[in-house]
Design goal:
The complex is a heterodimer. By secondary structure, chain A is an alpha+beta fold. Chain A contains three helices and six strands, in the order ββαβββαβα. In chain A, strands 1-6-2-3-4-5 form a six-stranded antiparallel sheet. The radius of gyration of chain A is 12 Å and the shape is globular. Chain B folds into two domains: 161 residues, Rossmann fold (3-Layer(aba) Sandwich), CATH 3.40.50.300; 66 residues, no CATH class. Classes of the chains: A alpha+beta, B alpha/beta. The interface between A and B is small, with 9 and 9 residues. The complex binds guanosine-5'-triphosphate and magnesium ion. The site of magnesium ion has 4 residues of chain B, from α1. Magnesium ion (MG) binds next to α1 of chain B.
Amino acid sequence: MEKAKPINQFQAGDHIEITSIQLTGVMRRRLLDLGFVPGAVVELNQKSPLGDPIAYKVCGTQVALRQEESVLITGKKRSAEERRSS
Amino acid sequence: MTKNIALAGNPNTGKSTLFNFLTGLKQHTGNWPGKTVVRAEGQFETDRHSYKVIDLPGTYSLYSNSADEEVARDYIIFEKPDITLVVVDATSLERNLNLALQVLEMTSNVIICVNLIDEARRKGITVDQKKLSEQLGVPVVLISAREKVGVIELLKTIDQMADGTIETCPYQIAYDNTVETEIEALEPKIKQLFGDHFPSRWIALRLIDGDQHLLDALKAYIQRSSQIKSDLELKQGGVSHGA
Ligand SMILES: Nc1nc2c(ncn2[C@@H]2O[C@H](COP(=O)(O)OP(=O)(O)OP(=O)(O)O)[C@@H](O)[C@H]2O)c(=O)[nH]1
Ligand SMILES: [Mg+2]
């Protein structure tokens, strides 16, 4: 299993298991409510040309995050096998 | 006596469609006091009861991150509707259940309306009503507010809940040891202050979370009720009647 890193450092199409959310306060609450919770698997859908914002698919909906938020969320890549077995 | 029903749910799940179906033309809209959030209220009758319905703003959460969330949350806690209908989107249950679970921590008189069931069927999604109801501990009704599917069963369930013949056991999230210990320490004090008037476990959780808005709202509530109490005592010639 790969090491966890900020979720803006993945590639389009990657499935990422969220490991931690280092944001605080209202922003943290919001992201939790949108489905960025430890253990959840999100998909990086696409990066805009300059790499900011980045769109993720979470709980079936697309959510765009700015870099200031995505660098504070960490996750690790789920391989195709891990995805099949879960 | 008229029973109060609140409609809660994520944005765009068909709350207003259901509200319009239930209340027809017997509705009016205004703003919530001090807020620019629209307040829609209406009425309907069955052969058993008459109901007042409030269409709460659609939100993903009830932790007062916004004026909409505050309105919806304060209504459920302070106005204590007799029934809260949580309208969830059958095609995205995972996301929608976040709010449903929050409501289940706040009140036990909940009916989950799984709406857009027509859309779900079109997409090949089936929802196991019985299992969902068993796991959540409250009635679950599958409906299509737009195509008027399942609405008879919904009305029947509403009447039964209003009659008090449905026993619910809302699913309660178990938190880790640290949080549960804090809850255990806080809950008796909250009960001492408010009795069973408010959901003490939920209030404990909000206090642990440092929710300033709720703290202010509770303080205002205590002031209001002690004012009412002393007014009453004055009217009764200073005779105090213990609680
Ligand atoms: N297919 C289908 N569409 C529905 C159903 N119920 C509502 N809709 C549609 O879903 C859209 C949103 O419905 P509303 O009733 O406005 O949803 P709402 O929950 O009040 O939305 P907000 O007030 O913005 O939170 C509308 O286009 C409705 O026609 C349903 O049961 N099936
Ligand atoms: Mg609406």
